[in-house]
Specification:
Layout: H1 2-32, H2 36-39, H3 41-46, H4 51-55, H5 57-79, H6 84-92, H7 94-121, H8 123-130, H9 133-144, H10 151-169, H11 179-206, H12 217-239, H13 243-251, H14 254-279, H15 281-288, H16 291-303, H17 309-326
Helix pairs in contact: 1-14, 1-15, 1-16, 5-7, 5-12, 5-14, 6-7, 6-12, 7-8, 7-11, 7-12, 8-11, 8-16, 8-17, 9-11, 10-17, 14-15, 15-17
């Protein structure tokens, strides 16, 4: 009993850390995105950077973020002598291939749109809107995979969607002129990440004959980052003519900032998987959603960004909705054994 309580406490602390770290990740990416290279078109053009790559500079920064995330997670798996497993999963198993296909939706689409949302609408708004993706994923699963939705899940989704709607269509304070464009990109990120989960769920539900295939969440995460890195390098960056900007980022030393932020991002995911193992996916997802509030806090404390009451209020509403969606009511009711009924390990 004592061991379970200690594991639960560790899981909660890790879940809280995940929310803090992901919120800080978004704020730092947004801050680096204010560099002259990304904000001054004249300066960028003088460095041989095209208008297209300047307009979509977050796609170049996403390339660095995802690539360094792959490096850090790969080093983690190399230390545990598990790195070669990701290539076995990719080339020899259907589950690995399904994860790779889903990654193309979740990362080049989802992550790129999220960073574009940060650029055009600011990190607090983009983050607050993006955290509703688990609820959207549940709705898509209901229609596509015919999975059931409980009453508390429907209520939670409705609340979080209301909060997102109010943030997106009723902003307050001095929002940028590109705010509407940023909100649109944040919504695209939501659907990208939600569809990634649905695609993996569909694949795992219909793939047969691979019950013996074992893969840890960390290995699947590394595979996801690997596919993301390759897709950015081979497809996304060339399409937007972004390699001159890549070169400039390296020459200016900004690459080291992205390496540091990516280390935080990779650590976030690794801790999230451990938290899910200790306290369950529901509570882990709920605590992860607090990133929306931490983004608001870090924006104000670290960079003195003005935070309005409207943003804080609806940000809290969104997080509350995710909590209601993710956690069953009986999670807060003790059973006969003195345990809380809704907290289960995956």
């Amino acid at each position: 009993m004592k061991k379970e309580r200690n594991q639960f406490k560790i899981g909660i602390m890790l879940g809280i850390f995940v929310g803090i770290a992901w919120g800080l990740d978004g704020v730092l990416m947004g801050r680096v995105g204010q560099n002259t290279l990304f904000s001054d078109a004249g300066y960028a053009l003088s460095k041989g950077i095209s208008k297209l790559s300047f307009e979509f500079s977050p796609l170049v920064t996403a390339f660095f973020h995802e690539s360094f995330c792959f490096v850090w997670v790969a080093l983690f798996l190399m230390f545990r002598k598990q790195l070669k497993q990701i290539f076995y999963l990719l080339f020899k198993t259907k589950k690995g291939k399904a994860t790779a296909i889903a990654a193309l939706v979740g990362s080049p689409i989802g992550m790129s749109a999220y960073l574009l949302g940060i650029k055009y609408a600011s990190a607090p708004y983009a983050s607050s809107i993006s955290v509703i993706y688990p609820g959207i994923g549940a709705l898509l699963s209901y229609f596509i995979l015919k999975e059931k939705l409980s009453l508390h899940a429907i209520i939670g989704i409705a609340i979080s969607l209301t909060g997102s709607f109010m943030l997106g269509f009723n902003p307050s304070g001095n929002v940028p002129d590109t705010f509407a464009k940023g909100v649109l990109f944040a919504v695209v990120a939501v659907f990208g990440w939600a569809m990634e989960g649905v695609m993996i769920g569909f694949a795992m539900k219909h793939i047969e004959g691979e019950d013996e295939v074992e893969a840890t969440p960390q290995q699947l995460l590394c595979l996801r980052y690997f596919i993301s890195m390759i897709s950015y390098a081979v497809i996304v960056v060339p399409i937007i003519k972004g390699y001159p900007m890549v070169s400039e980022i390296v020459s200016q030393g900004l690459v080291f900032k992205y390496a540091g932020i990516a280390a935080l991002g990779a650590l976030t995911y690794l801790c999230w998987y451990k938290a899910v193992d200790l306290i369950g996916a529901a509570m882990g997802t709920a605590l992860n959603s607090t990133a929306a509030l931490w983004t608001i806090i870090f924006s104000a404390v670290l960079f003195q960004n003005k935070i309005t009451g409207n943003l804080v209020f609806w940000g809290i509403v969104i997080v509350l909705g995710v909590f209601i969606f993710a956690i069953k009511p009986k999670a807060f009711v003790k059973n006969k054994d003195g345990k809380y009924g809704g907290i289960k390990k995956c």
